[in-house]
Write a structure and sequence with these properties.
The protein is α+β, with helices and mostly antiparallel strands and 176 residues long. It is 57% helix and 18% strand. The protein is built from two helices and six strands. A three-stranded antiparallel β-sheet has the order 1-4-5. The longest helix has 84 residues. The chain starts with 9 loop residues before the first helix and ends with a strand.
């Protein structure tokens, strides 16, 4: 007897019916999975952005704290430089006869400033530099034109930043 292959058997028909019945459930599961995956990806992305933002914030706050500290030291240094100036004026007025005790105090004060990165700007016998010097006079002299010949008030820098410009006298060159 010959089997009819065009019609499914009972077992095949039952499997097909079960697959058709399960298909909406599988589609619903797939849809739920896709929604959860999107939500997870969104939350993960937000977490990574938040972590990066926090790291940037932490670094920015560290830089700002460092800048505030540097500015506080700079403000104190500018005030202390007036004391240093007075020591130097007293030393010049006494023709180098500043007492030993006063010289020790001046050295101590300069040492403190140097430990905080504050150092004098060397100007004498060097070309005038408007970045770190203010010319208070231009006078004829034997020195080459544009050379600093006198330092009225010493300039200072902290690390690489000028915190006070030197006030200098600049040569006009030889008077004719």
């Amino acid at each position: 007897m010959k089997e009819n292959t065009s019609e499914p058997s009972g077992e095949q028909q039952t499997l097909a019916e079960e697959a058709d019945a399960a298909s909406p459930a599988l589609e619903e599961l797939q849809k739920s999975y896709d929604e959860l995956k999107l939500a997870y990806d969104d939350l993960n992305d937000r977490y990574l952005r938040l972590a990066a933002d926090f790291e940037n914030y932490r670094k920015r706050m560290a830089r700002e704290l460092e800048n505030l500290t540097r500015l506080a030291i700079e403000d104190l240094a500018v005030e202390l430089l007036e004391v240093v100036d007075n020591f130097e004026r007293a030393d010049r007025a006494e023709s180098g006869g500043l007492g030993e005790g006063m010289q020790q105090i001046q050295k101590l004060l300069m040492g403190i400033l140097e430990r905080h990165g504050i150092r004098p700007i060397e100007c004498l016998n060097r070309p005038f530099d408007p970045e770190c010097q203010d010319a208070i006079a231009y006078v004829p002299s034997e020195a080459k034109e544009g050379t600093v010949i006198e330092e009225a008030v010493r300039g200072y820098c902290m690390q690489d930043k000028v915190i006070r410009c030197a006030k200098v006298v600049v040569s006009k060159g030889k008077e004719e």
